Amino acid sequence: AGLALFAAFGSSVQQAIDDPGERIPAVVTFLVAASGISVLGVSAAFWALVAGLLVRAVLHAGRR
After folding, report:
1. What SS3 state is found at 36?
2. Residues 30, 31, 32, 36: what is their CA dihedral angle, to the nearest 10 degrees?
C-alpha cells in the first residue's frame, strides 16, 4: 500500500513546489513532519500543518 502512494506523493510535492510562493511553506511542513517532534502529546503531523500554514500566512501577508 505504501508503494502505491509514491506517485501521489510525488505529484503533490511537484505541484506544491512549482509555485514559487508555496515552496518555503511546503518545505517547512515536510521538515516538521519528518522531524517527528511531539509537543504536549500532539504528533508531528499536526505541528507540521500548523507550521506550514503559519509560514504561508506570514509570507502572503508580506506580499499584500
Report:
1. coil
2. 100
Which amino acid belongs to residue 59? L
In which domain, by residue range, is 49 found? 5-63
**What's this model's pTM, rounded to 2 decimal places?**
0.68
Residue at grid coordinates 521538515: 31
pLDDT, one tens digit per residue, over 3-57 is: 777 777 777 777 767 777 777 888 888 889 988 888 888 889 999 999 999 999 9
Of 26, 20, 17, residue with least CA distance to 55: 26
Number of domains in the chain: 1
